[in-house]
Each structure stands twice: as C-alpha cells, then as structure tokens.
Specification:
By secondary structure, the chain is mainly α. It is built from twelve helices and no strands.
Length: 202
C-alpha cells in the first residue's frame, strides 16, 4: 500500500476544514463533493488507512449522495477486506461505509449516480407517495453478500472480541437486519457454530 504524500495530506486537511465551514447552497456542496471524490479515485485504500486523511474519507462518505462513490469504495475495500477489517484506522472508515450503505438501502431515492444528478433531481422533484419504492441495484446487494461470505472465513470470535472490528461487525449486522434477514440468519448460525466449537474445545 502506497504512503500518502504531504501534498495530498495538505489537500485533504483543507477539505476537512471546508466541511466544517459549511456551504453556500446544495449546488456548491454537490460540486465540492464531486471534486473531492475525484481526488480519491485509485487512492481509496491508502487515504482510508492514513491517520491524516481517514477522517476526511469518513466525512466524504457521510455527505456524498453519489451511488458511484459508495460502490467504488465498497468494491475497493472488498478487494482488501482482510486489511480493512483489521486495520486500526481503516476499520473505522469501513464501519462508516457500512453505516452509510444502510442509510442508502433504507432510502435509495436520496442517492443518485452522481452528486450533480442528485442536486438536479432534488430541484425537479415532484411530491412522492409515502409508500413509493425505489429499487436498489442488484450489484449493491451482491457486494454485501460477498462481504458476508468473506467475513465468514475470518475467526469470528477474534472479530467480536476486538474493540475495532466488533463495531464494524455490528454495522454489518444492522444492514442485514434491515435488508436481508435470510443472510443475517446464515451469519448468526455461523457465529453460533464458532462459539459452540470454541466451547467444546475448552
């Protein structure tokens, strides 16, 4: 994993300051988020695991309304899931991503392909029925299924007893509880099996 250079650290420190200062309007915020997201392309892993830039990645994930950004980070983290589940800094960004993904799965209409599309949609949005359902792309669910199957290959007792990874594990369970009870049931059975196996060995 590449180290984050000083120039990049300085840029994202300024980004964090801008987050705290606020924005003139939604269009200003959307343009800013789009530019920041562009600067993370191909650097998601190192930026999320560096103590100088990880907080900014959390801020980006919390504020973005771009499904492309969420999916890009999720796909990158999945390629390095062992690291992201155990890294003392990166795991917190992973947790944030899962929590934001839960918000997306609960209210997909709040998100769009890009920041600008989201702003345009808000400006032209007609009143919606309370029970209107917006479909979530199948690819997003597939990413979660892959996460769960990968998590199952870890030592779950270690994950649950670690102060960092246990929070990540809780976030994943919350997602499944809302959107895929069947997968959650499978994961819980796997956890129970691991605990039972440990008890039998003692």
């Amino acid at each position: 994993m590449h180290q984050v250079d000083k120039g990049t650290k300085s840029y994202f420190m300024m980004v964090c300051e801008r987050f705290h200062d606020g924005f003139e309007d939604d269009e200003d915020k959307a343009l800013f988020l789009e530019n920041v997201a562009d600067q993370t392309c191909g650097k998601e892993l190192e930026l999320s695991c560096d103590d100088s830039t990880s907080h900014c990645m959390q801020m980006l994930l919390l504020h973005t309304r771009s499904l492309n950004v969420l999916t890009r980070f999720m796909s990158t983290f999945l390629e390095h899931v062992d690291l992201m589940c155990t890294h003392h800094i990166g795991a917190y960004v992973m947790q944030t991503l899962l929590e934001v993904s839960l918000k997306y799965l609960q209210s997909p209409s709040v998100y769009a392909t890009s920041e600008q599309e989201h702003t345009d949609a808000e400006a032209n949005e007609a009143p919606k029925e309370a029970l209107e359902v917006v479909d979530v792309p199948d690819g997003f669910y597939e990413l979660f299924r892959t996460y769960v199957n990968t998590i199952k290959t870890f030592d779950l007792l270690d994950i649950m007893s670690n102060s960092v990874t246990s929070l990540l594990f809780q976030a994943l369970i919350m997602v499944l509880q809302q959107k895929d009870p069947k997968m959650l049931s499978s994961l819980v059975k796997h956890v129970a099996k691991a605990v039972f196996s440990q008890s039998s060995d003692e």
